[in-house]
Design goal:
With 165 residues, the chain is an alpha+beta fold. It has one domain. Helix content is 22%, strand content 35%. The protein is built from 4 helices and 8 strands. It has helices at residues 14-27, 52-55, 88-96, 138-146, and strands at 5-9, 30-36, 61-70, 73-85, 111-117, 120-126, 131-136, 151-152.
């Protein structure tokens, strides 16, 4: 089995995001996202999920936690992270948000959609700055190239942000 590496898309736009989303949904079995954590609660697991579309899927929650660290950066305010089984109902909700800029608390949706297969990340995003990371092996990279997705290696530099408001 080939080693998976982290890449960033070289082109930005709704078509590229749609293809990356399809790629992730076909390979992932777990979904993780960031939701607001405005009030510290004593029993996080008993508090209602936000938004309502996730609340109805609460039986599929695998893990919930709050952290001051988000995308390896220490923040002044905590964020709640929710990891869920990627069920058909959750995939339908994810597909309803076809544009990356829709993944925003200000737009009533979670942020930082991340797709995992087991513990291995398939696709992760940083909604605040609009960054996308794709983790692919050579065959998957070739497959994505065939769909028009050009991937570049990070080479120790930050990727250009996706143009989000």
């Amino acid at each position: 089995m080939h080693q998976r590496q982290r890449y960033h898309p070289a082109d930005f736009g709704d078509l590229q995001w749609s293809r990356l989303l399809d790629f992730a949904l076909e390979r992932a079995d777990t979904f993780e996202c960031a939701i607001p954590y405005p009030v510290v609660v004593q029993d996080l697991h008993r508090s209602a999920l936000w938004p309502a579309e996730l609340r109805v899927l609460s039986a599929d929650v695998l893990e919930r936690h709050a952290s001051l660290i988000r995308w390896e950066i220490l923040h002044d305010y905590p964020t709640q992270f929710v990891r869920m089984r990627l069920t058909p109902a959750l995939a339908d909700y994810i597909r309803s948000l076809r544009h990356l800029e829709q993944w925003s608390w200000k737009r009533g949706a979670p942020e930082d959609p991340t797709f995992l297969r087991g513990e291995a990340v398939v696709l992760s995003t940083e909604s605040v700055d609009g960054r996308i990371a794709v983790y692919a092996d050579p065959a998957e990279r070739e497959f994505l190239a065939g769909t028009g997705i050009r991937l570049v290696e990070p080479l120790g530099v930050k990727a250009e942000p996706w143009p989000t408001p």
